Amino acid sequence: MDLVAALTGYSQTTRHIRIDTAMPGAFVVERFHGREGVNESFRFEIDVLSSEPFLDLTPLIGHAARLRLATSAGERSWNGYVTHAAYADSDGEITRYRLMMESWFALLRLRRNCLYFVDVDTKDICERVFGDYPQARRRYELKEPLRKFSLRGQYRETDDTFVLRQLAEAGLSFRIEHAQDAGKEASGDHTVVVFDRRAPFRHGSTIAYNLQDVGDPDGVITQFSERHQMVPDRVVATSWKADELLALAGHAQQPPEDKAPVLPVREIYDGQRAGRFDTIDDAQRFAEQRLDALRLPKRIHYGAGSSRTLEIGAVHTLAGYLDRAITFVPLSIEHEAVNNLGADIGALLGRGELDKGLYRNRFVAVPDGTPIVPPHRDRPIVHGVQTAIVVGEAGSRVSSTRDHQVRVQFPWMRGTAPLPGGLTDTASRSNPAGHAPGDHRSGVLARVAESSAGPNFGHAFTPRVGAEVVIGFESGNIDMPVVLGQVYGGRVQPPFAAGEGSDANHPGTLTGLQTQTLDGQSGSRWVMDDAAGQLRHELSNSTANSRLAQGYLIDQQGAMRGAYRGEGFELATDGWGVVRAGEGVLVSSTARRLATSTQMDVAQSVGQLKQAVRTAQGMSESAAAAHAGGLAANAAQADFLKAIDPAQDGKYTGAVNGQSATKASGAQRDGGEPVERFAAPAVLMESPENIVLTTPHSAVSYAAQHVHLTAQRDAHVAAAATVAAASGDAVSLYAAAGGLRAIASDGPVSVEAHTSTMEILADQSVRITSTDDRIDVLAKDAIVLQQGPNRITLKGGDITVETPGQFLVKSGAHPFPGPAAQSVSLPPLPIPAPLALFDEQIRFVNEDGEPLGNVAYQLKLADGSTVSGVTDDNGRTERVSTDGPTAIQSATLTPTQVVDCCGRTSDVPPPAVKVDIKGVGTHDTLVGSSEQSVTVKGESRPLTDGEIEMAKTVFQDSIDYSAVRVHKGSYFWFNLQSKRTAVTPNNTMYFREEDFVEDFSVVSEEYPRRGWFMHEMTHVWQHQRGYAVRWHALTVTIRGESAYRYEIEPGQVFSDFNMEQQGNLVSDYFALIVVDNRGELIHAQPGSKNQLRQVLAPLLQDPKDASNLPK
Q: Start and end of every Gp5/Type VI secretion system Vgr protein OB-fold domain (predicted)?
């Protein structure tokens, strides 16, 4: 028999199985076996027959195929793609081939990827993956909300494994629906439908139950049974949420059934990892879904039959089973079918079933209403650690979050900016940009692990952008990277590199920490040097070269150990240094053997001060007995001794923070003498040898009360120039033993009593000697010389000699030529100024904090008096002194130096400004040094809409108009504004009161205010583009009117003119071209319109270009 003729002669319309492939008419289906199910891709193995023994099956692979099964209503189609085609066997005339048809979902098994998904939910993830498959048709039937994940990783997983895991974790299932498109070209059209447990199922067919497969063209169910199984009845899911320090938990419990036996709780406790849930609702939903998945096998239907309309994921009704209808949803179906090729083919192939053909299936189902949730799928575990590079915003060195996280990028991440040597080709249609942006857009945010971390305490190590860090993964979860540390290598070298391959002069004795500033310069350093016999510890900072070194001091440069510098400790800085202690400071060079002393042990100082107190007290008593001034500061000295003496107040009197404040006693840590402390916040310097204070300049010492100097032996004061001592009260010099000398080796000696009596007293002789000249004794009224009862009085024109004894005059001659007189001129004595008991000094500044120097002032005081003067360069007045506290009520200020600037001028003098002063007056605190600042403010307004529109005709949007102010009043304190002028040193335009108007855009017949305004706006533009207007004004405007005049030469552009010429050019352009009104010109010699267009062309083209500023 001709087998080929038998195959082709049997009508296609009478066969109940047919197939459409990319090779039309090449095959006839012999039989097929297939399986389809919820949460799985279908798979059909199809045996086909052909009369061609050597067919090239290549055109089939990857192409669509359609398998058709005849039903009473027509045909049922399964659409898919041929994933496997092979020769099976042949008898020489008929060849059997085996084809495998699968869903496009099966293609997901063929790609393995490493990829991060950022800020997505499960649907977004599916869309991203499915988008790379052109065949992927999908639909979503979701009723429950999906959680959004900040990070989701696919690491060395195939696409199908990854997607199935994501769906299972979200409690989502899928089924596959086939397009019933028989009669068309094979399209492979089938849809993956993703649904959740709340989604309703579509209604399927009603199928009859019959023990024998007879009578129904669509088939019947011949077997149907039910299986019950014990399952867990409780799920508890917990997870730690690190960013809120909160444990989230969900609980799901199956309610007990009626008449069920008492059984133990069958709980599944799931607390495997952190970060699974964002909210309590997420945890509760997860627990419920997990319980539904575990309960799915509790009641299962098993069935078999020949029903050709049975579909997965649809609600079918079984009719005639135990006299009732049963609704169920198939979870999986296995199909087996043999084609009806006729008796001849069956006989030729030796298979009788090929005569009429057959179809059978087996299925697993659940009762309608059972929530369908896929079982949990364990995620793959990432073993070991990896390295990554910290990424951040371009130009930034740090890119971290408040919760101590950094963004990283792994070497295997592909995208637009991979790590050096990485891949830019992502092999993705749906995400061609990849997930390696190389900057702050990286979604991989990793927490930084520290050796200690707690609420506002712990270490803080923030890896910088570009650093290579070691990454671990919590619970091996690729979604939860953690920075474990940082490694050196390549371009990144250790700060104290030593050993093989380095230039260091040590084998590696340096340990510590080195930081860098954000611009890559040297920052802070902590070094521990473990060189034998040369231990060293150093803290340093490059700012002002500040450092604290302890131990063996050397000069270290980088990793090199330098020259020896000493031992001990060194605290040094090129900036300012401060030692502050609220309870007192002790500076001592007295050693304590084995450091057995306490912190504030000042035993030596106490002993020395006791002796000083006794010495000073004895000297004071001796001076008082001799009617000299006593030492009133002795009481303060004794009080200081009391404050530091542990036998008095210089000790702790109780426990400190729960511990006894006593010294060790024997083997006990306490119980001895009280621990020393200062009772007052004093500064004490003590040394067993010398204490020296030196400076090449001046040294200042000040005490608001007493200065007490006590020397057990000699006290010396030496000055190469003048020694001057002034006292507000009395001065007393007393020598208990020895003499008192006042000697001027070159110059006069003057002892004066300006308002009272001068006495020179001696117990023995008084000798007044002039070795080279004479002795003058002068008096305005009388001179009296007296010894015992003898007296000589010189008064007026008389000389009276009185004596009870003999008056002898011995001389070789006694001439008396007659009366004579000679007047004497007495030098006047100065009257000292009274000592100020209350005073104050004022410093005037403008609103920007700049001093108002060289400004004439007149201060009015509350007592009606006035004080006048001129402020210095820092804006300070002279000190104002009064006998009592007096308020300073106001000041009248007038500039003394003026420079013309910007626009119109006249001979009107600059105005005086009255400033009301509140809260300032003379007082007795810090007399001679106190100072109060007074700010001179003015009145200003923002630009009007008309002024802004006017300025935009030239400057467009290059000016931040919201920052500009128009000031009513002079800017005199900057020494720039005089007469009738305007000044614009920054974003503020200063107009005198007579020139200020509320809107300069309003046309004025009085003067060209709009042209003047455009001139000043030019200075605002210059300032905002970075030009130092007020400093350049000092050198430009000093040239007077010539600074404003301009002449335009061919080829010149806007930047060739100075700042004032630019202002006039803009003003002239506005007047002649913008408003075409010569009345707006502010000077007499403007350029022509063509010249102005030529010069301003670069400015008008791009006013934001700073190259237009004056060169």
A: 444-488
In a domain, 262, yes or no: no
Q: Say if 422 falls within a structural domain.
A: yes
Residue 813 clears pLDDT 70, i.e. is over it: no
Distance from chain centroid for Cα 223 = 71
Handedness of CA 912, 918, 919, 922 (dihedral sign): positive
| Cβ atoms < 10 Å from Cβ of 17 | 23
Domain of 921, in residue numbers: 835-937
Residue 855 belongs to domain with CATH number: 2.60.40
- How high is the pLDDT of residue 760? 80
Q: Is residue 925 over pLDDT 70? A: yes
Strand partners, 787: 790
What percent of the chain shows pLDDT beyond 70?
91
818: left (phi over 0), alpha (psi -120 to 50) or beta: left
DSSP 1034-1082: HHHGGGGGGGT---PPTT--GGGS-HHHHHHHHHHHIIIIIS--GGG-S
Domain end residue (candidates: 537, 556, 575): 556
Dist. CA 980–CA 993, nearest whole Å: 10
Strand order in the sheet with 913-916: 866-870, 855-861, 888-895, 913-916
* Secondary structure element (H or E) that encloses residue 408, with its range: strand 405-409
Q: How many CB atoms lie within 10 A of CB 1069?
A: 24
Residues 975, 892, single domain; the answer is: no
Q: For residues 181 and 1048, give the distance between their C-alpha atoms in angstroms, rounded to a whole number.
A: 84
Does residue 625 sit within a domain? Answer: no
Note whether 986 and 1069 are same-domain residues: yes
Of 329, 116, 91, the residue nearest 204 (C-alpha): 329
**Listed residue (1004, 999, 957) closest to 991, CA to CA:** 999
pLDDT tens profile 218-246: 899 999 999 999 999 999 999 888 778 88
Asked if 128 and 146 sit in the same domain, the reply is: yes
310 with 9: CB under 8 angstroms?
Answer: no
The encoded tokens of residue 742 equal 């006042």
Q: Which residue has the higher pLDDT, 126 or 439?
A: 126
Three-state SS annotation for 524-588: EEEEEECCCCCCEEEEEECHHHEEEEEEEEEEEECCEEEEEEEEEEEEECCCCCCCCCCCEEEEE
The C-alpha R_g of the chain, in whole angstroms, comes to: 53
The reply to whether 790 falls in a domain is no
Locus of tokens 């806007």: 1054
Cα Dmax for the chain: 195
The single-letter DSSP state of residue 1097 is H
Instruction: Using the 3D structure, point to which of 902, 937, 972 is the last residue of a domain.
Output: 937
- Token output for 130: 């499915």
Strand, coil or helix: what is 1099?
helix
Three-class secondary structure of residue 347 per DSSP: helix
d(CA 855, CA 608): 56
Burial state string for 798-834 with b = 16 or more CB within 10 A and e = fewer than 16: eeeeeeeeeeeeeeeeeeeeeeeeeeeeeeeeeeeee
Alpha-carbon distances, residue 1064 vs 293, 904, 1105 (angstroms): 84, 12, 20
Instruction: Determine contact, residues 173/195, Cβ cutoff 8 Å.
Output: yes
Indicate the residue type of 433: A
Nearest-CA neighbor of 276 among 169, 159, 401, 160? Answer: 169
Rounded Cα distance between 563 and 834, Å, is 60
Number of domains composing the chain: 5
Question: Mean per-residue pLDDT for 252-261?
Answer: 84
Residue 749's SS3 state is coil
Contacts of 239 (CB under 8 A, 6+ apart): 247, 248, 249, 271, 273, 274, 275, 276, 277, 283
First CA to last CA distance, the chain: 106
Give whole-number Cα distances, 470 to 175, 306, 398, 852, in Å: 42, 61, 17, 59
